[in-house]
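[job 0412] stage=complex_fold ligand=aspartic acid status=START
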Amino acid sequence: YIVEYKDDATAFNGVKKAQILGKGAINNAITSRIFPMLECEGVPTHFVGQLSEIEQLVKAVHMIPVEIIVRNLAAGSFAKRLGLKEGTPLKIPVLEHCYKSDVLGDPLISRDAPVALGWCSEDDLETIRLLALRVNSVLLHFFLERGVRLVDFKLEFGKLAGGQVILADEISPDTCRFWDAVTGEKLDKDRFRRDLGGVEEAYADMLERVSR
Ligand code: TMP
Ligand code: ASP
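[job 0412] stage=complex_fold status=DONE, emitting structure tokens
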């Protein structure tokens, strides 16, 4: 398949819509840098190669309709749900599972639901969870070296025709929370979601850091 990265941005389940100039090219470049690195670290991915500024060639997979969220610090919906101050440290990474359904607003589901509903096997789910934690440890280190705290992020997985589970989708400021390690400044899509301004600048800053 060819993935095309767009400048379109949405938030709050599509209620808020806008364009972030240059976002498509930046997210393509960032994902094209990160996925090969993850491959080298033992995480199989759908990435084949970057085709152009906004296009990527990927392996065809059957997507498993689960979004895996990995959290290192309390933020976003987790902080809100539990009444925690954003930035509260977590003693271990927290894995959450959401049902990938725009109609339902990607609701939180239990760990057992994907197997109970026949979306994947118990073994597949265990593989997904282990890969998500592996991605977290690689990326925590990678971003910290570039002055960025990886607060949380979202991953999606798919199955190859042969049955192997691999990482798909993207890893970018759209799908991660990045805080400057010194100042705490937000360098991700929260600048758009929360009307903080400096959206394009934050995406460009993240591309520059990832390219180091
Ligand atoms: P949350 O705190 O809003 O649940 O978001 C957790 C992480 O998931 C955060 O890094 C942003 C990312 N995310 C997506 O990639 N897509 C989404 O639709 C949402 C809501 C969050
Ligand atoms: N899934 C959200 C939406 O479609 C996007 C986000 O908050 O990242 O509005």
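The chain has six helices and eleven strands.
[job 0412] exit 0
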